[in-house]
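Support case: succinic acid complex. Customer-provided input:
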Amino acid sequence: MSLSAALDRPAATAVPTSPIEIRPLTAGQGRGRLGAEVLGLDLSRPLSDSDFRRIHQAHLDHHVLVFRDLRITPAQQVEFSRRFGPLQIHVLHQFALAGHPEILIVSNIKENGQPIGLGDAGHYWHSDLSYVEKPSLGSMLHAQELPAEGGDTLFADQHAAYDALPEKTKQRIAHLRAEHSYLCKYEELRARSPWRPKLTPEQIAKVPPHVHPVVRTHPETGRKALFVSEHFTTRIVGLPEDESRALLDELFAHSTRDEFVYRHRWQAHDMVFWDNRSVMHLAAGTPEHLRRKLYRSTIEGDAVF
Ligand code: SIN
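Agent response - structure generated as follows:
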């Protein structure tokens, strides 16, 4: 069922609304419209359609929602994520949470010498699963264990980045398409983090590259956004290699300029829900001796236009 169909569907039973408060992040923490806090969401009971609508609208308006003090189980995270669409299962099934294949463990923790999750997820700027045919609508990342220092996540507003491009560049990239590949940086990351698993032929077969427009139009708001990333974009289709490289480097540098970025400093029980059609994100890194564990669910989006 599409998201708009889900919104139009009458509630089977009348579910009371929660006293949810949505507070845009203040200047200095988040710039412009990027980022809002959501306080008072209670997911231990069914979410009313009107609360869902408010959260959905806030997500479209602010692109990054920070749910504070959200004490939910993995099953509740999965159920809440599913309100927005079908969930995507990460190719690194080794790091799925037991009993919840829809949840990817993002963690630097090792148990009995083995990593329990993907420790270097988000090492480069990216939009989740941009390498598949239908890249992600959004991702939810729920803090389980946080380091005393470090471990921040940065978000860059790709609508603002597109809007700020010189007119000449907008015209140049208007109809260009770029290839996205999961494998692009995989071996390089594996060389730095040898515990990253070697991909099996079956895993490699699951992630063929896909081509998407360099400028995408948000399917719900109609806003344009840049859609290339240093993690997954390999080349601009149809350009000579040196030209493609130079243009991508220029776009990567522009798209993550400070004025487009919100830096999230995690608090206990935060869950952050970002719009992968509007932002890119980056894990700023955690000192090796400190433990960090978060659960990520990823919602499928539409083919990119
Ligand atoms: C991710 O890229 O999904 C993980 C981000 C983070 O660990 O901060």
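Residues 106, 121-122, 153, 281, 283, 296 surround succinic acid (CB under 6 Å).

Case will auto-close in a few days if no follow-up is received.
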